[in-house]
Amino acid sequence: MTPAAETEPQAVRPGPLSEVRIIDLSQFILGPYATQTLGDLGAEVIKVEEPSGDRQRNSGKAPKSREMGSGYVAFNRNKRSISLDLKTEEGRATLRQLVETGDVFIHNMRPAAVARLGFSYKQVSAIKPDIVYVEAMGYDDAGPYAGLQAFDDLIQSASGACGLGQLVDPDVELRPLPSFLADKTCGLFAVIATLAALRHKERTGEGQYVAVPMLETFTGFLMAEHLYGETFIPPTGSFGFTTAITPHRRPFKTRDGYLTAMPASAQQSARFMELGGLPGAYESERFTSKASGKEKVAEYYAMMAEAAASHTTEEWMALGAANSIPVMRANTPMMIFEDEQLRQTLFEERELEGEGTYRAMKPGLRFSKTPASIRLDPPRIGQDTAEILAELAALPR
Hints:
This protein is an alpha/beta fold. It folds into two domains: about 10-225 and about 360-395, Crotonobetainyl-coa:carnitine coa-transferase, domain 1 (Rossmann fold); about 250-330, no CATH class. The chain is built from 15 helices and eleven strands. The strands form three sheets. The chain has a six-stranded parallel sheet with strand order 3-2-1-4-5-6, with helices on both faces. A three-stranded antiparallel sheet has the order 7-8-9, with helices on one face. A hairpin with a 3-residue loop joins strand 10 (about 345-350) and strand 11 (about 355-360). Helix 10 (about 265-275) packs across helix 12. The chain is elongated. The protein starts with 20 loop residues before the first strand and ends with a helix.
């Protein structure tokens, strides 16, 4: 039993950020993913929405309504929603009251747009001097792209992500990676930045402005290993981390599916091939007859593929565990629901009021004393407006 398995249910124990209040003006994916993660860690997140709601709400079909689409539900748990029309003085006045109660103010609007509403860092810090103000924008304002609109595909394009496939196959067309990877990565960096600024505030009492420029943040993340031979000036080799871009980096076909095998030594590789019906593979004529290193590598992967095809995926999972060979089944996206590890540790079926049952993916982080947890299901537009307004009205003035 792990230290996390304590007697008190996780749901009633506060998370590590339980005394932090987040005022969240974000929409789409980057900001909501960041604030959902902070909410999973126990922060109180107040999602401020215009009367029509987060524009991600109608992304993906909901069972019964237009405002609870699957794209919205995936990024907005552990939040309360207040609906405010920030084009009106009444809405702005309420938000200013909320700011007074907050520890963090986060948004992913363009800087000029948020300033027009009256909520730039200068304006917000005048209301709450110790606020941690997190602004996610497309591009660092020190460069020529400052102020331009940014979406995931635009950032993937400028960062080089669309061309990563060409490091493996020069003839492949440029295309974004099939995930909103820039949004989610930058969302996590926004979480890291928020936690660092909160730590500074804890030590000094000072708030601060935090910028999360997508292009610079994502490019640094994506290319950390791929500068490789271009790291030094002049270059010492080519662009692209060789083990990451080899065309052999792919799952092997088994008798009934696919398997990724990562032997950590020649001994493990030889054992894998022996278990697959190819004993003494490294000493075999088919391997030793190859003249060049490149030919030997190609033959090695051919033998590994031949060995993999001799057993089912489940048989290989058992053989890998018994022989200390790192292997793992290769799931297609739909197969993740059948993976017993994920069934037991990640997926949770919950009831979403008015919509029915939905799949939630529980926080992956584990804390023995202050657990991350799902406390609130994604809210409808302005679901908590009356409650939050009542709380503000009860505050001493």
